[in-house]
Amino acid sequence: MAQVQNNGITGGVSASLPILMTMVAFSTIALYNVIELNAIIFATFKRRRGLYFWSFIAATWGIAPHTVGFILKFFNVTSVWWAPLVLISIGWVAMVTGQSLVLYSRLHLVAGSQRSIRWVRNMIIFDAIVLQIPDMILAFLTNRPNAPASVVNAFSIFDKIQVGMFFVQESIISALYIYETVRLLGPIGGRNRNPLRKLLSHLILVNMLVLVLDATLLGTEYSGHFEIQTTYKPAIYSIKLKIEFSVLNRLIDFVKKKNPAHGSRSQTSNSSYPLSFLTNTMGSAANSGSVDYTDKALPTTISLSRSQFYARSNKFAPPVA
Question: What are the E-state strand segments in 175-269?
Answer without folding.
Answer: none
